[in-house]
Specification:
The chain has 594 residues and is α+β, with helices and mostly antiparallel strands. It has 18 helices and 25 strands. Helix 9 packs across helix 10. The chain starts with 12 loop residues before the first helix and ends in a 14-residue tail after the last strand.
Length: 594
């Protein structure tokens, strides 16, 4: 352990916190410090020079990957049911909540089931919804629309989901759950060479240089072994995707589709603040063939949470979700709220939009998918946090009831199917796919579904292609000219990116990898045929192309240190040529109130 002298490294707070967390976990490893030949890894990033070096190992009853609402709720429920359960939660962010980004107007019903006395325990739900409206925007004006039943928020709260997760983590730790931020879970472990049953996870190695060689600060990752591994990484989690591929969990469901959500937090003039007010809007600046909308929430004390969501099935490769967001803020009715205020935070995250028809098989031998890793999101309601909490509870209960000999908690899938998660998602299953045929058709179908059918339609609409397949070639589309930022209401991307607190150690291998079989795609296909859409859709300016002095011989440059872990590049690049893997623990954004 003396190798962990990396604390002397001059680096970010995120790095130091990750190291302290790593040290804490290693210090709690009692007698498990030798390799275990019976445990096999998949998707290992270990180098040849590491092949003989054993990793330390620790045993748990349950290992949870991801300290979001799903993972923490599962851990809490496990300890409520069995105080002797040995439960560990690992989180790649430097702190719990530092990678959490959500709207968020929060429905507390699942939290009430999990912790009935959350008010007495001072959960950070401090701004109840007091009023709301739904608008259709034109370029200079707007008109009100009736708020659909699925978007009504009476009894809900405007919150920071990151703050709620930090509170949930403290509740979990009081029950005896071991919560370790600063760890990137990089591998699934298996019980034997046949790889038919998951046996835990391994964390990524730390202190590996950009050249792939160990630095003075190198430390091997750890094996966290468990009978049950719950994957609660959020949308497009790397181990969740690996499990889906390995066990073919998506064979009986539709292709998952996604949106990109961008968000800023503003401190505004207290005279303009309307505590608990909620606004949603659609229309301008998006064209009628692009799905998307906006939110603006007034949270105490004088904060405005403002965001913009763009469906990633848009066709025009010249579209920039970030620039559309900045343009939206210049709408007269939006600008008037923000003028005189200050933007204090920025971030972005992909969200699920496929609906219930895109949810995969939830369990596999040795583990299960929870929350957004599984795809639980109500698109018209713009909510998934309560589903995440409920799914974590149901998985924990299935583990508790399964007994010692169970290898797959199939009862979890049955419990979800019989819960209000399934009922609510089934009611809205046709709304998002309807917008594939344009805004007017989507609004018409959504109106009938919301007010008349309520899930009783004798049909189920489906998305016809993946988001990557939806992109048209550049020659078929018109370039989009975006206005220059004014530096007061709208901002250039790199200026705004500083507000995310993003940090990665520059001297490490890039976690954004071009798939070997698609190595020709960036320069020969994406740049030449599609106009390099990744240089526009990335909300952190990670991807750019350089050319020679004649404008030829393009080369993709990946600025991985900018990455805010939104996962969009693994979704929207042509042929999905990017494989998103985890960086060293503690890297990424450092959100506080997102």
């Amino acid at each position: 352990w003396s190798g962990w002298t990396m604390l002397r490294r001059i680096g970010s707070v995120a790095w130091r916190r990750a190291v302290v967390s790593q040290a804490s976990l290693r210090g709690s490893a009692t007698a498990a410090s030798c390799s275990a030949p019976s445990v096999w890894g998949v998707a290992s990033r270990s180098r040849r020079w590491l092949s003989m070096e054993a990793r330390e190992a620790m045993d748990f009853d349950v290992v949870v990957v991801g300290a979001g609402p799903a993972g923490l709720s599962a851990a809490i429920r496990l300890k409520q049911l069995n105080e002797d359960a040995n439960v560990c939660v690992v989180e790649k962010g430097a702190e719990v909540g530092s990678h959490i980004l959500s709207g968020n107007v929060f429905d507390p019903k699942a939290l009430t089931e999990l912790i009935p006395d959350w008010k007495e325990k001072e959960a950070p739900l401090d701004t109840p919804v007091t009023s709301e409206r739904f608008r259709f925007l034109t370029e200079k004006s707007s008109f009100w629309l009736p708020t659909p039943p699925d978007m009504q928020n009476h009894g809900n709260y405007i919150i920071s989901l990151g703050s709620l997760c930090r509170w949930l983590a403290s509740e979990a730790e009081e029950l005896g759950v071991e919560v370790y931020p600063g760890f990137s879970a990089s591998e699934l472990l298996f019980t034997d060479e046949s790889k038919t049953q998951v046996a835990g996870i391994a964390t990524s190695d730390m202190g590996v240089g950009k050249d792939g060689k160990p630095k003075d600060t190198f430390a091997r990752g750890m094996e966290l072994r468990a009978k049950h591994t719950l994957l609660a990484e959020g949308v497009r989690g790397s181990l969740s995707e690996e499990a889906m591929r390995h066990f073919d969990l998506r064979k009986d469901c539709e292709t998952q589709t996604y949106g990109l959500g961008l968000k800023e937090v503003w401190e505004i003039d207290p005279e303009k603040h309307k505590s608990g007010h909620v606004e949603h809007a659609m229309g301008w600046p998006l064209s009628s063939d692009v799905y998307g909308g906006s939110f603006l929430y007034h949270m105490d004390p004088n904060l405005v949470l403002i965001g913009f969501v763009v469906g990633l099935d848009y066709a025009n490769p010249y579209l920039s979700p970030y620039e559309e967001f900045q343009r939206f803020k210049q709408h007269p009715e939006v600008r008037s709220v923000l003028e005189g205020g200050q933007c204090i935070s920025y971030g972005a995250r992909a969200i699920n939009e496929g609906g219930i028809q895109s949810i995969p098989k939830l369990t596999f031998p040795g583990g299960a998918l929870l929350g957004c890793s599984a795809g639980f999101l109500n698109v018209p309601k713009i909510k998934g946090s309560h589903y995440a909490i409920k799914s974590g509870m149901l998985a924990a209960e299935a583990i508790h009831e399964a007994g010692e000999d169970a290898t797959e908690i199939t009862a979890y899938s049955d419990a979800v199917a019989n819960s209000w998660i399934h009922k609510e998602l089934n009611q809205v299953r046709n709304m998002r796919p309807a917008f594939e045929k344009g805004r007017l058709f989507g609004m018409a179908v959504s109106g009938v579904e919301s007010y008349v059918l309520r899930g009783r339609a004798p049909y189920t609409l489906k998305m016809s292609h993946s988001d990557a397949e939806a992109t048209k070639k550049a020659a078929e589309c018109e370039p989009i000219e975006y206005p220059k930022p004014d530096g007061k209401i709208s901002f250039d991307l790199l200026t705004n990116l500083q507000r995310s607190g993003v940090y990665h150690d520059d001297d490490q291998p890039s976690h954004l990898k071009i798939k070997p079989e698609l190595a020709h795609v960036p320069e020969s296909v994406s740049y030449q045929e599609f106009g390099a859409p990744e240089s526009r859709f990335c909300p952190a300016k990670v991807y750019e192309y350089t050319t020679d002095e004649n404008g030829e011989n393009p080369k993709l440059v990946i600025n991985a240190q900018n990455c805010v872990h939104c996962k969009t590049c693994s979704i929207k690049t042509p042929f999905e040529f990017i494989n998103w893997t985890v960086p060293e623990g503690g890297g990424g954004p450092n959100y506080e109130n997102m």
